[in-house]
Every structure is written in C-alpha cells, then in structure tokens.
Design a protein that fits this description.
Shape: globular
Bound molecules: acetamide
Number of domains: 2
CATH class of the largest domain: Alpha Beta
Length: 388
C-alpha cells in the first residue's frame, strides 16, 4: 500500500532487533547503535526539520515474531523504512512482507550472500568481504585441515559451503562438519569436543551464533586445547559474544569483520566514545552495531535528499551514496544493493580485546553471488583508497 506523504510530524521508522532470546546480546548492540544514530540526527535538527521517531518491537530472536512485527509495522504503524534483523532466518521471514508492502529494509548483518531483494539494502559483509579473507589468512597462518561447527539454520550451512570451496582451492580438507541446535545444551558441545579430539584439525571454523558461542569457547577451553595451535575462527564471534564468555575463554581466537571496537582511526574512536558515553563503558561495540549505525545515517541522508521516505525515492537516492563510517568510507553498490566495506582480521588478546592481525587497507566491492571466488582475486574498489 502506498501512503501519501505527510509533510508534518516526525519521520517514523521501524526498528526490529531482539532484546530477548538467543541472539539478543548482539542484537542489543545493533539496537543501541540504531538509536544512537537517530539521537545524533535529531540533535542536529532532524531531517528537513522533522525528528526521527523509532517504532520498536522485541521479536525475541524468533523468525515468526519478526515476520508478524514487520507486518504490523508496515500495515498498522504505516512505517515505510525498516532497520533490523540479525539471523538470516529472520531476514528471510521479513523480506516477503517488506516486498509485498513495497517497504525498504536496511539489514546490518554479515550473511551468507546469494540473495538480492530490490527492497533491501545490505550493509553487513557478503562472503567476499569476510570469508574469503579469513580463509586466505587461516590457510597461510594455521594450516589447511578444517573442522566446521555451526548453529542449525541457513547462515551456517551456506557459509560453510562457501568456506569449503575456499579451503579446497588450497588443497585443504574439511575433516568434519557438525551442527548444534540454536539453543544448545552442554552435551551438544561435549560431542563437538570429542570430534575435535578425534580429528585434530589445524583450525575450527565456527558459525555458531548467539549465546551458544560462549558455551562452545568455554568447552574448548575446559578441554585444554591451545588456541595458538588450533584456533577457533569465526565471522559471528564479536565483542558481544566475547563479553558473554569472558577473556579467558576468548583469548587467542580469531574473527574477520570490517569493524572492531579497538580500531584506532579518529572516526572509530568517536563512534566508540559516543556509544560508551550513552550505554556505559562495558557496552560492547560490534561490527553489526557499526553497520546498524551507519545505515541509519545513509538512509536518512537519502530521505533528506528526496524530501520523502517513499522507498522508491529513498532507493534511488541511497544507491551509489557514500558515508564516512567508523570503519572507513562505505558506499552502496547500485548493482546489487550491498555495501563496499573494509575487511579486517583480529585475534583476541589476554584482556579480551580484538587486536588487528591483518588489515589489507582496501575497500572491497560486494560480490554477493561470489562471481569472483578466487582466494587471490578479490573484487577491490576501483577508486583510490586511503588506509583507515
Ligand atoms: C546471520 O545469520 N546472517 C549471522
């Protein structure tokens, strides 16, 4: 349904991040970052003199609730722009609703790729912006015998499929692939630990998400494994999961992401400072939060340009737009609605902080369908690049 432009009152936008449930720790960082960006814009006079008003629900890490609240936001609350979703299962539940109502979803989470919706702007990493670089790093630093462990849903299955492709390019081998429930219990990880002992891989690639992550890393630590010889590497173990498991369980493990709380650039320090000022010194700042933050700025700049939150007009204005995000200058790719991002890899130190171990200093064009799948041939931005 098309809602006519009301030029008075606030810009009402939908916000769907879980405050409860298995992925609430990471989604709360996305919610916090979304509200921080809205607060900043409102403090600067809003958009064309009108404030942004978030309309929020707690979908509790449940794809059915995500879908129901998306319906409600678009049909009852009559918002046209939505910011939200972490798990791919929730994005896939929400998108048909957004498409049916011709809304526009801004999705700030790394995912498995192989998707395009005209009604979605993807601001997290596609596999050619994190998995490819992580595979290359692990194959040179750790070895080529991998064990995969993941949560039982679409992102881990698809992410593992791609990682297996990358590993095989270097004549590597996937020794085992194990899935645990989204809400795992201790005995699920006993099984994982036994399989690690049996196969003795060079590296464990984890696509476990949410609160099960802490259980995996703690079980690994309790088993007495050595992360300097056999690290767990992941795209979904962020500052939020490290805060849940503690520094002792996290030390030595590896994550690839475009943003880490420890980045030293002026833009990163400013963002982290504002975030902690608002939410407390211990509030984790994650790559998923950084994407949630910059996508609000990008979206509302597009609204300012066209004077409307009509999704068709916002889409035209957001495509090819750039923003000086905390990770570096990002850009929305008009070919595929994904975002040019800055890949990085970090290892957790003794204090539980991510320290960068690999930073190529290049912005990478999104290639969500992995047309370029070679470990040595990235889709690098063609523009002159600055290190951040
Ligand atoms: C994810 O499910 N995209 C982490």
């Amino acid at each position: 349904m098309v809602v006519s432009d009301d030029n008075s009152g606030d810009w009402r936008v939908g916000v769907l991040f879980s405050q409860t449930g298995v992925t609430s720790a990471i989604e709360r960082t996305q919610l916090n970052a979304t509200l921080l960006a809205i607060e900043e814009i409102n403090a600067n006079g809003g958009v064309l003199g009108r404030r942004i008003e978030p309309v929020m629900y707690d979908p509790a890490s449940d794809h059915k609730k995500f879908r129901a609240f998306a319906e409600r936001l678009l049909q009852v609350d009559r918002v046209r722009l939505l910011f939200g979703c972490y798990m791919s299962s929730t994005r896939k539940a929400v998108l048909p609703v957004v498409e049916a109502h011709r809304g526009l979803l801004f999705y700030p989470t790394l995912y498995e790729g192989f998707e395009y919706s005209r009604q979605c702007i993807y601001t997290g990493a596609a596999p050619n912006q994190n998995s490819l670089q992580l595979a290359k790093f692990l194959l040179s630093a750790c070895g080529n015998r991998f064990l995969f462990v993941g949560s039982n849903y679409i992102y881990p299955y698809e992410s593992n499929r791609l990682m297996a492709d990358f590993v095989s390019q270097d004549k590597g081998k996937v020794l085992d692939e194990i899935y645990v429930p989204l809400y795992p219990d201790e005995k699920d990880f006993d099984k994982v630990i036994n399989r690690i002992k049996k196969t003795s891989p060079d590296v464990i690639f984890s696509t476990v998400v949410g609160s099960g992550t802490a259980a995996l890393y703690k079980a690994y630590r309790a088993a007495g494994f050595d992360p300097t010889r056999m690290p767990i590497a992941s795209l979904t173990t962020s500052e939020a999961e490290v805060a849940e498991m503690g520094a002792e369980a996290a030390e030595g493990h590896i994550t690839a992401a475009p943003f880490f709380e420890t980045l030293s650039s002026v833009a990163a320090r400013r963002f982290v400072g504002s975030f902690k000022n608002k939410y407390g010194a211990d509030a984790p700042v994650t790559a998923a939060a950084e994407a949630a933050y910059f996508q609000v700025h990008l979206a509302m700049r597009a609204v300012a340009k066209c004077g409307s939150d009509d999704p068709d007009l916002v889409l035209v204005n957001v495509r090819d737009s750039e923003f000086d995000a905390p990770q570096g200058r990002v850009r929305i790719d008009s070919e595929n609605n994904h975002t040019y991002l800055w890949p990085r890899i970090a290892r957790v130190d003794r204090a539980g902080r991510f320290q960068i171990v690999w930073n190529p200093g290049v912005r990478v064009k999104p290639d969500p369908y992995c047309v370029v799948q070679s470990l040595d041939d990235w889709s690098v931005d063609e523009l002159p690049l600055l290190r951040s």
